[in-house]
Write a structure and sequence with these properties.
The structure is a single chain. This protein is mostly helical and 144 residues long. Helices cover 68% and strands 0% of the residues. Helix 2 packs antiparallel against helix 3 (57-72) and helix 3 packs antiparallel against helix 6. The longest helix has 24 residues, at 26-49. The radius of gyration is 15 Å and the shape is elongated.
Length: 144
Amino acid sequence: MQTYKIAIALIAIGTTALAHGGVKNKDVLARMEGMTALADQVKVIGRMMKGEAAFDAAAANAALQAISDEAESIPALFETEAQDPKSETLPLVWEEFDDFEQQALRLERSTAELSGSISDPADLRPAMKAVSAACSGCHEVYRE
């Protein structure tokens, strides 16, 4: 089941860039760009985990730290209630903003704790599982 969730997360991340075309609202575009920055770092770890890229502990740890740094900015990206036909954000984000903020904090903290812990290829799957769980926890509630 966890492998299925990780695969779904990687597929969703892979299609993120396609969603940006035609976005007219600058706040929505900024959110999408922030999510793309997160996705790019998740891909670094995902490619190593799947054997599509050589294992590089420094790169994996840097990706986890970059995810943590970017996750810190997520609430600010959503402070303005903005929509666009291309947006997948549900209005529930603003109705439950405190919980949404906590979801971002969970991602920030879990990836900060994991950063520096990758020393072996076997460390990638548990790290990806934690990242995937944090992302899915928010996306399942606040994203179409």
